[in-house]
Design the sequence.
C-alpha cells in the first residue's frame, strides 16, 4: 500500500529521527502544527499498512520505521518508470537529465556514478 502525502511527510520525520515519540514528531512539523489526534490517526494508518511499528514505554509509544527510506523510494521510482516511461529506465534517465536544471558539475557527477556502477558489475 502506498502512503498518502500526509503519511509520507510524517514518514520522512520518522526516518530522520530513527525512533521518535509522538511529541517529538509533532515538534518537527512547521507551524501551524497539526492536531495530536491527526498525527495519532496517521501513525495508526501507517502501522496498519506495515510501514512503522512502536515500542510501548510506560504510557508512551516510541515509533520506528519498518521500511527503509531507500526501499520506499526505490519502489516509488520504479512505479513512476513503469507508469510514465513504458518501464524504460533509460527513458527516465534521458528525461531526468534533459528536463531538470542540472549543472555541468552535477552531470559529471552522475556520469561518475554510472561509471562506478559499471565497474562494480564487471567485477
Sequence:
Amino acid at each position: 500500500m502506498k502512503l498518502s502525502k500526509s503519511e509520507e511527510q510524517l514518514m520522512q520525520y520518522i526516518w530522520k529521527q530513527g525512533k521518535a515519540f509522538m511529541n517529538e514528531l509533532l515538534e518537527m512539523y512547521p507551524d501551524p502544527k497539526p492536531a495530536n489526534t491527526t498525527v495519532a490517526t496517521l501513525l495508526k494508518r501507517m502501522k496498519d499498512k506495515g510501514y512503522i511499528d512502536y515500542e510501548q514505554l510506560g504510557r508512551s509509544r516510541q515509533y520506528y520505521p519498518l521500511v527503509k527510506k531507500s526501499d520506499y523510494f526505490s519502489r516509488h521510482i520504479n512505479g513512476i518508470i513503469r507508469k510514465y516511461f513504458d518501464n524504460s529506465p533509460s527513458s527516465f534517465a534521458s528525461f531526468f537529465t534533459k528536463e531538470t536544471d542540472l549543472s555541468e558539475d552535477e552531470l559529471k557527477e552522475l556520469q561518475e556514478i554510472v561509471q562506478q556502477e559499471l565497474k562494480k558489475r564487471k567485477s
